[in-house]
Amino acid sequence: MKLFTSGGNHKIVFAWFVSYMLILFFTSCVNFIAYIPIEQRMEEQNNHYVTELLENRKEEMDNLRTLVNNAAVEISHNETINRLAFSTENLSGNNYYRVVEAAEALAVYKTIESEFQNVYVYFHKLNYCVGLNTSNIAQSYFKVQFGDRQIKQSDWMSLMIENHNGEFIALPSESADYPETVLYLLSLYGTERFVPAATIVIEVNSDKFTPASGAESYNEAFFIINAEGKVFPFGNPTEEARVQEIADTYGVADGISTVGKQIMIANHSENSEWKYLYLVDKSVFQSGIRAARRWIITLNILGIFVVIFIAFLFARKNYQTVQQIINLFGSPQKSEESGFRYIESRISDIVAENQAYSKITEKLQDNVIRSAFLSRLLNERVHISNKEEMLDSLGISFPYPLFQVVLFYIEINDDMFFDNKNDDTEESYRLARLILTNILGDLLAKEEIVAEYCDVEGMLAGIVNLKTEEHIDKFKKIIQKLQEFLLSNFNIRFMAGMSDSYTNSDDLPHCYSEAMSCMEQYFFSSNDVVTYSELENTELTDCYIPRNMEEQLVNGMKVGNYEICVKVLDRIFQENIFASNQSVQAAKIVLYELTAIMIRTIAEQGIIDDENAISDLIHMVDNIGVNMDAKEITRRLQGVMQSFCTKHKQETVQKTDILTDRAKLFVDEHYMEPALTVAMIAENCNVSMAYLSTNFKKRYQSGLLEYINLVRIEHAKKILEDSNDTMERVAELVGYSNMRSFFRMFSRYVGTSPNRYRAMMLAKKKEST
């Protein structure tokens, strides 16, 4: 079935169909544009996730370093260890007894065997090792502890006799049955500073230096950079060499950075010169983004087919509207004339009637283009090679060597002879502008002066082209004559500001700036002609508040710091109002600007304690020099400022307290969730992690992550006291995903292991009964 009987109708239907397709294309573009912030958001979430992993890992490593260092220092101060280290006897008699005492002194560290693989002390003069599990001469001790690991005895002995100030050293294992071991070594010195009497050794399994949670791809990419900028070895020389090359090439800066095809997230240790970093392939970050992109493309393709079918149906249906138009015009005179041809003939008559209006519209468009181009000449330097050609194409010609800018501020009032009494100030301005430019054109017709006009910032601007310097004074007299003529005949009042003259059209922006400076005199001489040369002699061009003072005042108000605001106000009064050779007019300009800054800042913050104070402020400036002295002005300004700062500070503190209380309540309610992170809490509170963490610590003297662990440990203590649940179950109930993290955090905050704490609590209950 054909859509319509005539070929012309088919064309119109096809045009409709194409228009629907354009709408579809626009909608698809909007979908893809909307995808861009989604993609950025997904990448930010990936960044937050890996940053959170690194932050947790950094905390674990710093805690491990602190634990190991404290244990080594504690051993170094043990009296038994010191007596044996500095003994002059050989391994007999009292020294055998001291060896037993030393072993007993080290036995206390068996309670934290989950953190240390082994602890022993090598005594140099005795060539003897005392450890947690066994004690023997150095060679025999090595065979028992390291014989199966295929570590060279000479390498091990070299480590024992060297000087160590507390450092971690990776001890590689050539046996696949044993993991790599990390040794922490601390030398114990006597009177000879560089000759150690004993070496304290704490063995830590290398798995302590790899992440305990997170995606596997992130675990494999974790590395430690030591104080010398070297990668801490973990047994994969190829991977370590690659990371070392990246660190040497790009450096290791805190935060997120791109290194080749990878993304590096780095952070520094809080208690050492170590740096921790993750290296993640960009593909890991972008996998979710690719999936979202595929979904959007698939849905858009499906939508295209659906809309094409709908567009076809609507194109057919819309022909009914065309038929209604035909009925409105009346039936065609000729039967062979198609419906659309008939509509076309009728509409062509209407178009012919409006051709005259089209010419007027074209002229108006030309004026708009001319005005826009001239406005651009005034506001910026037009660095284009064909500027003259553009001026010619717009019918603009500047035949003379001198350039000047004049600004007209036309005062709209009810007494203007053509006022239409309907409050249409825009129409009144256009009529006044038309009269001014036409009469001024007649006055300049016989002079060697050319003027082109445009509208800028609610004023009429004229670019004046003059032949000689004499024409500058002549042009000013013409403007003054124009003022008198318009006032007496049309009751039109205007002020004019004239710049100095320049010999290059590229200086028009400078001319415009000078003319704007003249227009500032509107406050004091609203019906005058002000030239920039006259303005310079009045010393009013320097009456302003310096930018740095304005910024200091605004920043002080925004943070509610009244002391800073008072200091800035004092500087403004001393340097810009009380300075010598300043007039009352100059003081008014400064105070108007000062009150404008204060009012704008108060309005932006939305804190207006007393609305009458604002109007009083403006009235006060109006009366300066009449019934208001400097002391009263200072007192009133400081009163408004103090009231604002006090109220602003109170509201800021209240908002911060509500935010931190909300974060604390969220932790109290969700502490048992393993996925609870600072990022999750910040997202719930709709603020950044940095802002939330800073204000939380400021109020509760505790970091947000530390508070999470404190809440979990307190609940764990209560469960241990009141139930017989297993340690795995206790860890799960308080939100720890693995036993190692639970034991480590419990020992850190309570000072003992969970098992021992339960035993202590049971013993106390028995004693009380």
From TrEMBL:
User: Which InterPro entries does this chain map to?
Assistant: Homeodomain-like_sf, HTH_AraC, HTH_AraC-typ_CS
Segments crossing the lipid bilayer: 12-36, 295-315
Q: Which residues form the HTH araC/xylS-type domain?
A: 661-760
Q: Which UniProt keywords apply?
A: DNA-binding, Membrane, Transcription, Transcription regulation, Transmembrane, Transmembrane helix
Q: Which domain of life is it from?
A: Bacteria
Molecular functions (GO terms): DNA-binding transcription factor activity; sequence-specific DNA binding
- The entry's protein name is Helix-turn-helix transcriptional regulator
Q: Which organism is it from?
A: Ructibacterium gallinarum
